[in-house]
Design goal:
about 30% helix, 2 domains, nucleotide-binding, single chain, Rossmann fold, globular, six-stranded mixed beta sheet, ATP-binding, iron, 9 helices, alpha/beta
Length: about 260
């Protein structure tokens, strides 16, 4: 079943085309990682799929319909978005921030219902953030804050979650903590997850499907075994990579690489 796809999607900033003629299908109930060099259009593509930025032409299809025709609250019940840079109001507590995820379901005066509180508590529990629910978000570590933002996304009760570089600025342990949480949500709750990642080995290890981009176009898409291979990495990143197998996950692993010089 195809739930999310793009057809000839083009996104431009002014006269500059950033994403050009992209037609991709996102596997349902799997983790998809978008990889590519800086400035290749990864984040722009993600934002275009979520309607955070307008498209120039083409379509983004969700459940067979163009997302441009969805009302904002209706769309927010289907997909949650975690941008690369999150800003919370100063002094906001963890529980208060997570409660914002219930906005798509609020009517009238916007008061939280017993159902809302039940979902908020569940989101805090599943992300292991309940212990600091009354602390201010500003006072948390980077890894803790990222889990809180994921909890807010979960509180939206969507089946599709988008994340733009969720491991940026985190140390190795906290990166694994976040990625393992996302994998758990995918396996146990069948959430469809689409995220931009910079680390090739993390993408290969945690994603079921990879989309490799260059200059606003998809160069290769498929399982990690098909994408994390020397020819694709040469074209996408301009590196000569030595690929092995991760002894723990069995997934392909970039062992070492050299920069390819003298090629345009």
């Amino acid at each position: 079943m195809v739930r999310l796809a793009t057809e000839n999607l083009q996104i431009a900033y002014g006269e500059q085309i950033i994403v050009d003629d992209l037609s991709v299908t996102i596997p349902n109930k799997q983790i998809t990682a978008i990889i590519g060099a800086n400035g290749c259009g990864k984040s722009t593509f993600l934002k275009g799929m979520t309607r955070l930025i307008p498209r120039h032409s083409g379509k983004v299809l969700l459940d067979g319909g163009d997302i441009a025709e969805h009302k904002t609250k209706a769309l927010a019940r289907k997909m949650a978005i975690l941008p690369q840079t999150q800003e919370a109001a100063s002094g906001l507590t963890v529980a208060e921030l997570v409660s914002y995820g219930r906005f798509p379901y609020q009517t009238g005066l916007g008061r939280l219902t017993p159902t809302d509180f039940e979902v908020i508590n569940w989101a805090l529990s599943v992300t292991n953030t309940d212990a600091f629910r009354d602390r201010q978000v500003d006072a948390l570590s980077g890894g803790q804050r990222q889990r809180v933002w994921i909890a807010m996304a979960l509180a939206q009760e969507t089946e599709i979650i988008f994340l733009d570089e969720p491991t940026t600025y985190l140390d190795m342990a906290h990166q694994l903590e976040v990625l393992e949480l996302l994998k758990k949500l995918n396996i146990e709750q069948e959430r469809t997850i689409i995220m931009v990642l910079h680390d090739l080995n993390q993408a290969a290890r945690f994603a079921d499907y990879l989309i490799a981009m260059k200059d606003g176009k998809v160069i290769k898409a498929g399982p990690s075994e098909e994408v994390i291979e020397p020819k694709t990495l040469r074209e996408v990143f301009r590196i000569d990579a030595e690929i092995g197998k991760d002894p723990r996950s069995g997934k392909p692993m970039c062992i070492t690489y050299d920069l390819i010089k003298g090629e345009d």
